[in-house]
Design a protein that fits this description.
Length: 443
């Protein structure tokens, strides 16, 4: 929709003809725009909807604007028709005709009468007490442009929201219904599981959201910053997006519960095995502790705890949940049990290691003693009386019960030093016997 040129002096015939041609094209463009607005799907929806809030207020104003638009267009059409009639009186218009045409085409020659209701509700005439106004054709087109732009902006915005959000909400609601059914099948229900409560809240939010979107679409419209074009902006999907994410979180939770249902038996069997190994390891540690206390003297042996009865009770509870298909309760319990069972097995192994440490030390000393005996034998000193005496003393200490590890280790070191002394060559020129004993017990 364009704007005609400004008024000026008396127009000649060529100027009149050019102005009429321009006004005719403009008239056609305006009519096309108004008919498109009249047939716009958004406008038809607005006419038939029960509106509330911002949308109701703006539609009341837009309806008045559209009514005025048609009144203005009719006045514009009449003025254009009158101008064409004057120009068609004769081939060469007289000066009187040209004066009249100039006044009609450039002066404030168009009178528009509007209804009191339309005048009161139209945004450009709000507060005006006039029931009719005088316009030039240029001013009339400018007024129509303003009303058309504001009306189209409102219609396009409402239609954009209605086109985008209700369908998406319906799809999400359908997905929500499927999720609810799946949740019910695995025992995820309101009041029994947080995910069930979330589903109820999402259901209520979506129901309310759809009702508000249908009745007040402009409440969910975010205008584009700095844009003056009609319909500049986008639907505000903040609430919808938040609920879609919440539903996705619930779906993941239910998928985890479904996985538990599929793998529950295997996970329970594995848990029983881990706890059984932990129990056997603790039993072995308790038995080893008795052996250590009987065979090793002067050694601190840590106490060994009893079997993990609390975990066994929780395992029995988990088996009950599985028998009664309470998957939503079984899921977190299994995760907790698996972590605790692994910790329990690790603790049992550490306890066994700590308890048997003195036996390991004794075994290491025995191995070191026998290794040096074999080394001495390779050098032909196996029958040396001094070494035999030292070896027998260390062996008696290591193979006696209870064994004093500190004294036994000293005996092994004495044997090692004696063997090293005999195996090391002497260097007289350095001032007598040289003790080449490796103080760490190695030659």
């Amino acid at each position: 929709m364009g704007v005609t040129g400004p008024p000026g002096p008396v127009m000649d015939r060529d100027e009149v003809d050019r102005a009429l041609a321009r006004l005719g094209a403009e008239h056609e463009a305006i009519e096309t725009s108004l008919l498109a607005l009249q047939d716009h799907a958004g406008r038809r929806l607005l006419e038939g909807a029960e509106l509330t809030g911002t949308t109701k207020e703006r539609w009341t104003s837009a309806e008045a604007s559209i009514t005025l638009l048609w009144a203005y267009f009719d006045a514009y059409t009449d003025a254009l028709r009158s101008a064409r009639d004057i120009r068609s009186r004769r081939r060469w218009s007289s000066r009187d005709d040209l004066v009249e045409l100039t006044e009609l085409l450039r002066g404030e020659s168009v009178t528009v009468a509007g209804s009191a209701t339309a005048t009161a509700n139209a945004p450009t005439l709000a507060g005006s007490s006039k029931l009719s106004e005088q316009f030039s054709l240029a001013a009339l087109v400018e007024r129509m442009n303003e009303l058309y732009a504001s009306s189209l902006d409102m219609v396009v915005a409402a239609d954009a929201v209605w086109s985008a959000l209700p369908a998406r909400i319906d799809l999400l609601a359908a997905e929500l219904q499927r999720t609810r059914q799946l949740a019910h099948s695995v025992g995820v229900r309101p009041g029994e599981h947080p995910a069930g409560d979330d589903l109820e809240r999402i259901t209520r939010t979506l129901t309310t959201l759809r009702e508000r979107v249908v009745s007040d679409p402009l409440a969910f419209w975010a205008p584009a910053q700095g844009s003056s074009a009609p319909g500049g902006g986008r639907p505000d999907t903040t609430t919808y997006d938040r609920e879609a994410r919440a539903l996705e979180d619930v779906r993941r939770e239910i998928d985890a519960v479904l996985t538990v249902r599929q793998d529950a038996e295997a996970r329970l069997v594995k848990l029983r095995d881990v706890l059984s190994r932990a129990d056997r390891t603790l039993a072995e540690a308790r038995s080893a502790r008795g052996e250590v206390l009987a065979k090793i003297a002067a050694s601190e042996v840590p106490a060994v705890s009893g079997p993990p009865t609390a975990l066994q009770e929780q395992l029995a509870t988990a088996a009950e949940y599985r028998r009664h298909a309470q998957w939503h309760r079984l899921s977190p319990l299994l995760e907790s049990l698996e972590e605790k069972a692994d910790d329990e097995l690790l603790r049992a192994r550490e306890s066994l290691t700590a308890v048997t440490a003195p036996l390991a030390v004794r075994a290491e000393l025995r191995g070191r003693l026998d290794a040096y005996k074999a080394k001495v034998a390779r050098h032909g000193l196996a029958e040396d009386p001094f070494l035999v005496e030292r070896y027998d003393a260390a062996r008696r200490m290591l193979w006696s019960a209870p064994c004093d590890l500190r004294v036994a280790e000293e005996a092994v070191l004495r044997y090692q030093r004696a063997a090293a002394d005999l195996l090391s060559p002497r260097v007289p020129e350095q001032g007598g016997p040289s003790d080449r004993v490796d103080r760490r017990g190695e030659s």
